[in-house]
Structures are given as C-alpha cells and as structure tokens.
Specification:
Layout (H helix, E strand, L loop, with lengths): L2 H16 L6 H12 L2 H12 L7 H20 L1
C-alpha cells in the first residue's frame, strides 16, 4: 500500500480518537494500528516515518513513533 494512503488512514484514525479522549489520542491511535493493521502496513508507515513522515498529523506521528520505538526494542531483545 502506498505511504500516502497509510498516512491518510492514520490521520483519519487520529481525528476520530481526538473526539473521544484528548489526552490519550496518540496511545489510542497506536493501539488501534497495532491491533487492526497488517504487519506490512505497520512496517511501511514506520519506514515512511524514518523518511521524514511528511503529512502525518501530530497525534498520528506520535503514535507511529511509539510503535517504531517498541519495534526497535523488540528487535534488540531478539
């Protein structure tokens, strides 16, 4: 899937969660992406973030950053 499509989807999810709970938006977005996106979608949006992540809304960017950090920790642990 093209990164622009993933960015749009992540931003829509962030917009939805912003209406639910303002103080947990990034955490809720990260949880949603982890639960419902295919691993290759997660991998692609994390790679896109590494390339600069242009277009990601702040909450979506924070969510993807958290997911990427967790993936790095898991990879380091083996």
């Amino acid at each position: 899937m093209e990164p622009e499509k993933l960015v749009g989807m992540a931003n829509q999810i962030a917009q939805f969660f912003a209406t639910q709970s303002r103080d947990r938006v990034a955490a809720d977005v990260a949880d949603h992406l982890t639960k419902f996106w295919e691993p290759r979608m997660i991998e692609r949006i994390c790679a896109y973030l590494d390339e600069g992540g242009e277009g990601l809304a702040p909450a979506a960017r924070s969510a993807v950053e958290a997911i990427a950090a967790e993936r790095k920790v898991r990879a380091a642990q083996g």
